[in-house]
Amino acid sequence: MKKIVLFILFFLLISVLIFSTVNAAKIRCRDYKVVRNDTYTSVAKMWGRLPGQIVLANKFQNEAPNYAIYVNQYLCKPDSDERNRNFGAAVYNAPAGYFSAYTSNKLLILTVNGFSKGSNWFVITDGKKIGKVKPTVKAEQVFKYGLKSRELPKIACLKNMQTDLLLCTTIIRR
Predict the structure, then answer these.
(1) Is the backbone of residue 139 left (phi > 0), alpha (psi -120 to 50) or beta?
(2) What are phi and psi of 7, to 5 degrees?
(3) Domains of the chain
């Protein structure tokens, strides 16, 4: 019986995560999934567009002033006649941010790298907010959270408080 309840809870969590990432009001398309080391410049070259066009087409899901992109985020491909604006090399050439998660002794440990300085993120496991992440530098930072339940979570998500962008990763057990 316990296994059935756990399976149902896990299934519900996955369903919530999947449907919350495809919010029609916020995300209009799923043209390209960002991978590690992507930049606006590299995506623009792949599509034959200007980096400013990529920023503008995806501005609704990325925070000003640097409009950072993140691994596993989906980007929209702009039309060829999309307007352009110069956001500068610092925006165009910044590699995609990423994070990893692992558990150790009832602790969830998140390592974030390349996240916008001062951006605000909720930490979510098993559908519950367990804390916040607010990077103070763009370099790698580590955040630790105590876990109360006996069952260790399988997935950790970060949800941007401003844009509702949701990023998730599988938690590594140590």
Answers:
(1) beta
(2) -60, -45
(3) 2-22+98-173 (2.60.40), 32-92 (3.10.350.10)
